[in-house]
Specification:
By secondary structure, this protein is mainly beta. The chain is 6% helix and 24% strand. A hairpin with a 3-residue loop joins strand 2 (29-32) and strand 3 (36-39). It binds iron/sulfur cluster (2 copies).
Length: 68
């Protein structure tokens, strides 16, 4: 049981296209001031859905595997 500690991380090459926004089931990623996507690490569970939808491939999932 447990959520684990995997989190999404956006690199500086984000082009602020917004494709990741709205894909997160927890609303944990948004484009901040139209400049760069930011992840709310308090909400993010590292599911990777945002990364799957990033055309620039600048979202990485970091951290430990979820435990069961
Ligand atoms: S990894 Fe999943 S939970 Fe985290 S920001 Fe991306 S879509 Fe949301
Ligand atoms: S989909 Fe990728 S490039 Fe577009 S805003 Fe999100 S992190 Fe940035």
């Amino acid at each position: 049981m447990g959520i684990g500690r995997k989190k999404a991380m956006v690199t500086g090459e984000c082009v602020a296209c917004g494709c990741c926004e709205g894909k997160c089931p927890l609303n944990a990623v948004e484009v901040y001031k139209g400049v760069i996507a930011k992840v709310d690490t308090g909400r993010c569970v590292g599911c990777g859905r945002c990364a799957d939808h990033c055309p620039a491939q600048v979202i990485f999932i970091c951290g430990q595997e979820a435990v069961s």
